[in-house]
Amino acid sequence: MARFYSIRAEPPFNLQLCMGHPLDFPLAVLLGSILVVTGPTVIAPLLRHVRPAGQVGEVLKWEGILGDPIGALLAVLVYEAILEGGFRESADQTVIRFFSSVLLGCVVGVLGGGLMVLLLKFYWVPDFLQNAFSLMMVVSVYSVSNLLQEESGFLATTVMGIAIANQRFCPVKHIIEFKEDLRVLIISSLFILLAARLDVSDLAQMDMGGFWLLAILMFVARPAGVLLSSLGSQLNRKERLFLAWMAPREIVAAAVSSVFASRLAAAGYAQADRLVPLTFLVIIATVAIYGLTAFPLARRLKLAEPHPQGVLIAGAHGWARELALALQAEGFQVVLVDSNWQNISASRLAGLPSHFGGILSKHVLDEMSLYGIGRLLALTSNDEANSLAAVHFCDVFGRQEVYQLSPEDGEKGRKLVALQHLNGRYLFGPAITYAFLSSRFAQGATIKKTSLTEKFDYEAFQARQGTARPPCL
Q1: Considering Cα of 304, then 308, then 311, then 314, what sign does the dihedral take?
Q2: Which of 11, 262, 288, 375 is most buried (CB neighbours < 10 A)?
Q3: 351 by DSSP, 3-state: which?
Q4: Is 276 in contact with 197 (CB distance < 8 Å)?
Q5: Whole-prediction pTM value?
Q6: Residue 269 φ/ψ region, left for φ over 0, alpha for ψ in the -120 to 50 degree band, beta for the rest
Q7: b/e for 301-338, b at 16 or more Cβ within 10 A?
Q8: Nearest to 221 by CA among 244, 205, 239
Q9: Confidence of residue 409 (pLDDT cuts 50, 70, 90)
Q10: Does the pLDDT value for residue 115 go beyond 60?
Q11: How far is 146 from 153, CA to CA, in rounded Å?
């Protein structure tokens, strides 16, 4: 509601929103409902870049996920109230439709997600058709929900996605990857198509009213909304401040404003053509401002590290512990994971943060904090486990920061080397395997650091220490 009041254009305020004329109050309320949504399409890349600590990332992520369908539904109801003659005449009907749409969307979404999980669990859908089948199910759930209650399909598909992502009965990682690829293609195309409808002259004619609207959204409405919604929560002052400065608008606002503008213009609303320029002004400005300032603000508030340099080590055997101690002594954060309890006990006695369990165990990943951790070293004796860990953590750290030991010699090792997409970057060199390093440490090898200078560079060090190897290939 704060956004509605902030853009109200009635006497005595007479706030001029754009092009020298005040925006009619019904259209101002519609614009406010459109600009409610933030959305994951912009928030998610920012969070991957900033990697904020604490609860901030989860709050922003779920705000975008849940705000998208609810905000779009709210805008639709406001739009219909405008066409029906005003808010007072249709207030009761609008409220009833809103809650019935939310309830029906949740029910249809859960039922659709449950049906899809059931079909995948019992392998009634062939593997090569699962991506296409999932897309068909999304369209079907959207259509069925809209048939039962108009404009509830968006919420239904969102609830369906939440249900599928949080179930534990069948793997859906390949479907999620397909969805991510599809999302990038569709959203990129949609932004181009929507922006193509906007003339540069529309933005050029914008006066100070539009920028006052932008300022109110960023410096009044958003902070007030965060303050009120976080009352009684466990968020600290720094986290609330970061949340107050993070509300970029995205594709849903652009799509909804374009649809409503054309329909309202056809219905005889002369000012309807101002919705799209104002919406795009807010989208462009908020994405640019928040995108450029999010990372510096997170660093200043100590909610994110500039470049996480910590190391997650798969394996807590003897020489892996020595490597972890050497890294820790240099100020790097380390975390070890191993399914051998004796190794974990020895790691903890040595003062190393350690977690008991498999590196791919979801239980371990849920309990383990990766704050400050920026790369993986897979150092177990199992080449397949190292490769699986590398593939899994490519999504977390990026392929350039995932390392594993070279596979052992033999047919199996040569096959693993050949499958580059199933491996991380190799540590030290192709001949430096687990057996080789274990043998060297058993013979008394130690880990030492050497300072490099302009006179004594890496090539000079390599010439003196013939067995020294670069960290990766």
Answers
A1: positive
A2: 375
A3: coil
A4: yes
A5: 0.61
A6: beta
A7: bebbbeebebbbbbbbbebbbebbbebbeeebbbbbbb
A8: 244
A9: low
A10: yes
A11: 5
Beta 373-378 vs 334-338: how paired, if at all? unpaired
Q: Taking a C-beta distance cutoff of 8 angstroms, is the pair 82, 30 a contact?
A: yes
Amino acid in the structure at residue 323: L
Kindly give the pairing relationship between strand 373-378 and strand 402-404: parallel
- CB atoms inside a 10 Å sphere around CB 9: 19
DSSP H/E element including 375? strand 373-378
The three state secondary structure string of 103-172 is HHHHHHHHHHHHHHHHHHHCCCCCHHHHHHHHHHHHHHHHHHHHHHCCCCHHHHHHHHHHHHHCCCCCCC
Backbone φ, ψ for residue 434 (5° rounding): -60, -45
Q: Is the omega angle on the peptide bond into residue 12 within 30 degrees of 0, that is, cis?
A: yes
Q: Which helix (H) or strand (E) holds 61?
A: helix 56-83
The structure tokens listed for 85 are 């003659």
How far is Cα 50 from Cα 59, in angstroms, rounded to an integer? 14
Q: How far is the CA of 390 from the CAs of 103, 384, 413, in angstroms?
A: 42, 10, 16
- Kindly give the pairing relationship between strand 310-314 and strand 373-378: parallel
How far, CA to CA in Å, does 353 sit from each of 38, 363, 369?
Answer: 37, 16, 11
Half-sphere exposure of 360 (CA within 13 A, CB side): 11
Measure the CA–CA gap between 335 and 355, rounded to whole angstroms.
Answer: 8
Question: What φ, ψ does residue 472 adopt, rounded to 5°?
Answer: -155, 165
Angle, in degrees to the nearest 10, between helices 411-418 and 383-397: 20
Choose among 319, 313, 317, 356: nearest CA to 335.
313
Residues 6+ apart with CB under 8 A from 86: 26
Q: How wide is the angle at C-alpha 454 spanned by C-alphas 450 and 457, nearest 5°?
A: 45
CA 306 vs. chain centroid, Å, equals 18
Coil, helix or strand for 186? helix
CB 266 within 8 A of CB 259: no
Contacts of 418 (CB under 8 A, 6+ apart): none
Distance CA 314, CA 404 (A): 9
The radius of gyration of the chain from alpha carbons, rounded to an integer in Å, stands at 27
Question: For residues 438 and 462, is the Cβ–Cβ distance under 8 A?
Answer: no
pLDDT of residue 427: 82
- Tell me: the pLDDT tens digits for 423-449? 778 887 777 888 888 888 888 888 877
How many whole angstroms separate alpha carbon 378 and alpha carbon 383? 9
End-to-end CA, the chain: 56
- The tokens describing 252, both together, are 């849903």
Residues in the chain: 473
Sheet-wide strand order for 373-378? 354-356, 334-338, 310-314, 373-378, 402-404, 425-426
Which of 174, 182, 183, 184 is CA-nearest to residue 125? Answer: 174
